[in-house]
């Protein structure tokens, strides 16, 4: 048995002639937070959808707990324990915390054909789960629309964990948040990982990713530029890689060269 | 100073969470979608109680009259409300009523089918029409407004064309004689609680005809259906998993899909619901009148939507209640009948209907903002 909880090996995805992803490899252990960094258009969304079972990879394999897995639908991914929290969070602002928490997977009670939604149980679990992450929902029947952005993000993550996620895929969880809210979400992500989950944190914000990440995969124009352990790479290096920094570096070297030649003459 | 300490002590005396602002029961009520319609109903009753209190509107007979009208509208309004909560419209309700009517009448009168079989046939057609509406909306992603508007014309046209083709007329009479002894028709054509009215009549508590029988003979079937459907729809919305899926589908289609709600199936079933409700409406009216008319139900879809909106449903979906729609229907039914008992020209009814709807939409919008208000 390998060390890895989940492996995405050489994943490629094509849309017609467009190569959206090419040979992207990511391997995660339990309790690891891998940050997937990339600029706009780097292929982050395609990769997330492939991890979540929305797209089928054209090449490559997904190995979960040493078994090769093929996802036919997002439900398959959910069932084996890959929980994806999309940027839009899949929360309905007009519905209550409880109704959102259990949306699509409501606990039921009663006899067949007359089964009812067990609201009390659902309220209790929702309040309890939110309490565990330090969000005190005063009233689980309050609308999600009344919660702050960070609280909503935490609700969505907490929901994914409650429903059995072993690998959490988080799409830009901090992008729309202020500093305080973002740190609240990041703290929760670290806590989740420390309890044994593997987390893939997709972001373009190195400043949010660097403090919490154990390893970093940089995506550029559909290709992985490699995976780096935290000790092997600095924040500045990551930042420059994301921005296509190599090209800028080359340019700098060339400019220096020209300078040198100019000075010689 | 004393004021301040008082406010602090009152806060800390709250049982568990000092951050929980004390919410007055009124505010809790304000957050319910059906509040506006409930208040409106009460206002309407008070108004007619004053203006038409001595005209017989509130006699047993008069009340059953306006309850009957309200109930008929309510049957389709509740289904329309559930569909609206699910995020879609059905403009083909009115045409479906006409279509269901001839689906009952033509087989029963011209093809010699037993009445119960024609009724079953009409419901089967309703399921088909609803399914078609639903699958078109779900598969094409077109707005339901357009799809069901097309269905409005198609069904009305079919109703007219088929009826004229088969009967040469636009009305199919002669159903009344078939109702007796039919194993199914009584569901839509029987007055209930007759004993109660006979008893009340014998006590001279309600108005009597000259032959001594009470003027109001029993609760019309529409009212029973109306009450049953209101309870059923409320149970579904508030107490079942499917109900939660309806709110989710209307509130955020993409989000609901992502967490595993079968949004397509939910919406299709709701479209079937409105078509079936139209058919219940048609059964009651056709069997009551004893004839099917190709124009029956014209514009009913708009009244149903208006009642749902007055009942607190948001046009954008995801919010509303069946009880609200029921009260919306009661408001419209009461006013449309009550206006006969006043000196007001009945032409004003539509003005009222429009104004009421406008007020309701503004009010609902305000409520939605309140509900989703961020901290």
Structure description:
Helices cover 37% and strands 26% of the residues of chain A. Among the domains of chain A are: 1-83, Rossmann fold (3-Layer(aba) Sandwich), CATH 3.40.50; 85-167, no CATH class. The N and C termini of chain A lie far apart (64 Å). The mean pLDDT of chain A is 85. Chain A is an alpha/beta fold and 265 residues long. Chain A has nine helices and twelve strands. Chain A has a six-stranded mixed sheet with strand order 6-9-10-3-11-12, sandwiched between helices. A four-stranded antiparallel sheet of chain A has the order 2-1-4-5, with helices on one face. Chain B is mainly α and 375 residues long. Chain B has one domain: Orthogonal Bundle (ABC transporter involved in vitamin B12 uptake, BtuC), CATH 1.10.3470. In chain B, 70% of the residues lie in helices and 2% in strands. Chain B is built from 17 helices and two strands. Chain B has helices at residues 2-12, 25-30, 35-51, 60-85, 93-110, 115-140, 144-167, 176-179, 186-189, 194-202, 221-239, 241-251, 253-258, 263-289, 300-310, 322-341, 348-371, and strands at 171-173, 291-293. A two-stranded antiparallel sheet of chain B has the order 1-2. The radius of gyration of chain B is 23 Å and the shape is globular. The two termini of chain B are 28 Å apart. Residues 1-19 of chain B have low confidence and may be disordered. The chains are: A alpha/beta (265), B mainly alpha (375). The interface between A and B is medium-sized, with 33 and 29 residues.
């Amino acid at each position: 048995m390998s060390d890895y909880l989940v492996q995405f090996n050489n994943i490629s995805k094509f849309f017609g002639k467009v190569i959206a992803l090419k040979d992207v490899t990511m391997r995660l252990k339990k309790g690891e937070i891998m940050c997937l960094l990339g600029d706009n258009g780097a292929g982050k969304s395609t990769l997330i959808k492939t991890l979540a079972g929305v797209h089928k990879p054209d090449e490559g394999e997904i190995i979960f707990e040493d078994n090769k897995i093929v996802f036919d639908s997002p439900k398959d991914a959910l069932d084996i324990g890959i929980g994806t929290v999309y940027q839009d969070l899949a929360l309905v602002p007009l519905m209550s915390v409880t109704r959102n928490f259990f949306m699509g997977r409501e606990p039921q009670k009663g006899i067949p054909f007359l089964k009812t939604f067990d609201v009390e149980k659902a309220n209790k679990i929702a309040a309890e789960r939110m309490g565990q992450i330090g969000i005190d929902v005063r009233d689980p029947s309050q609308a999600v629309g009344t919660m702050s952005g960070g609280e909503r993000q935490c609700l969505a993550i907490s929901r994914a964990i409650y429903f059995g996620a072993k690998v959490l895929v988080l799409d830009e969880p901090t992008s729309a948040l202020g500093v305080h809210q973002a740190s609240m979400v990041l703290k929760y992500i670290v806590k989740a990982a420390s309890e044994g989950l593997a987390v893939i944190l997709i972001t373009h914000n190195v400043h949010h990713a660097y403090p919490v990440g154990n390893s970093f995969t940089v995506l550029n124009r559909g290709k992985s530029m490699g995976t780096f352990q935290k000790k092997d790479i600095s924040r500045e290096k990551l930042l420059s890689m994301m921005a296509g920094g190599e090209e800028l570096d080359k340019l700098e070297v060339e400019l220096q060269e020209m300078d040198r030649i100019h000075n010689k003459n | 100073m004393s004021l301040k300490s008082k406010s602090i002590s009152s806060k800390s005396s709250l049982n568990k969470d000092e951050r929980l602002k004390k919410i007055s029961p009124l505010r809790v009520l304000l957050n319910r979608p059906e509040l506006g319609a409930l208040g409106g109903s009460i206002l309407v009753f008070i108004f007619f109680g004053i203006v038409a209190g001595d005209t017989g509107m509130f006699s047993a007979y008069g009340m059953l009259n306006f309850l009957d009208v309200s109930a008929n509208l309510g049957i389709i309004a509740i289904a329309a409300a559930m569909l609206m909560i699910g995020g879609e419209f059905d403009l083909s309700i009115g045409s479906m009523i006409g279509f269901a009517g001839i689906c009952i009448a033509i087989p029963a009168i011209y093809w010699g089918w037993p009445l119960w079989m024609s009724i079953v046939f009409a419901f089967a057609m309703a399921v088909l029409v609803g399914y078609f509406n639903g699958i078109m909306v779900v598969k094409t992603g077109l707005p339901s407004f357009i799809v069901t508007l097309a269905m409005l014309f198609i069904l009305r046209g079919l109703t007219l064309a088929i009826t004229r083709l088969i009967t040469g007329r636009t009305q199919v009479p002669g159903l009344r004689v078939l109702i007796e002894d039919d194993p199914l028709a009584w569901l839509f054509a029987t007055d209930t609680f007759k004993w109660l009215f006979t008893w009340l009549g014998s006590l001279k508590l309600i108005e009597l005809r000259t032959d001594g029988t009470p003027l109001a003979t029993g609760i019309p079937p529409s009212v029973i259906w109306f009450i049953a459907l209101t309870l059923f729809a409320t149970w579904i919305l508030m107490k079942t998993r499917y109900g939660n899926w309806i709110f989710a589908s209307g509130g955020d289609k993409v989000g609901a899909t992502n967490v595993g709600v079968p949004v397509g199936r939910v919406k299709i079933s709701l479209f079937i619901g409105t078509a079936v409700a139209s058919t219940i409406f048609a059964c009651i009216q056709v069997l009551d009148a004893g004839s099917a008319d190709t124009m029956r139900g014209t514009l009913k879809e708009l009244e149903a939507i208006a009642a749902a909106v007055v009942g607190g449903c948001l046009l954008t979906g995801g919010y509303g209640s069946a009880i609200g729609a029921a009260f919306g229907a009661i408001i419209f039914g009461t006013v449309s009948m009550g206006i006969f008992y006043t000196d007001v020209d009945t032409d004003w009814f539509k003005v009222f209907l429009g104004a009421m709807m406008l007020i309701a939409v503004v009010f609902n919008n305000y409520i939605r903002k309140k509900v989703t208000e961020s901290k």
